[in-house]
Amino acid sequence: MDDEVSGEDIARIEARIEELGEAIERCRKFSLAAKITIAAGAGWIALSMLAAVSYTPETTLTALAAIIIGVVLLGSNRTTWRETESALRASEAMRADMIGRLDMRMVGEQGPTLH
Are 78 and 89 in contact (CB under 8 A)? Predict the structure, then answer.
């Protein structure tokens, strides 16, 4: 990477950070959906064991399938979430480094005069 940093470079990094933030939000939603699926399957099995709902092999297999699908979704989503958060931290560090390399002056500081 060059020593020169432009506002366009920083804007690209900020756009990437925003995309990663949206991806993390999607991961949160998938995680919630997976947990609800697991809870629904486990709840249905518990209700059928307590005879609160009629027991049929089909509904029990469906509940077990829901639990398995939820666990698989939760596991794969957790990996994606971790990788996305790692990329987000790296992008934020890169942005901070780029901003640190900019030659900025404080407000009120006397700049060079042209006359």
Answer: no
Q: How many CB atoms lie within 10 A of CB 27?
A: 19
Phi-psi region of 31 (alpha: psi -120 to 50; beta: other; left: phi over 0): alpha
Please write the tens of the pLDDT for every residue from 60-94: 999 999 999 999 999 999 999 999 999 999 999 99
**Long-range Cβ contact pairs of 27-30 (< 8 A, separation 24 or more):** 27/77, 27/80, 27/81, 27/84, 28/81, 30/73, 30/77
- Cα separation, 98 vs 49, in Å, equals 60
In the block, tokens 């666990």 appear at 71
pLDDT for the residue numbered 85: 95
> To which residue do tokens 């029990």 refer?
60
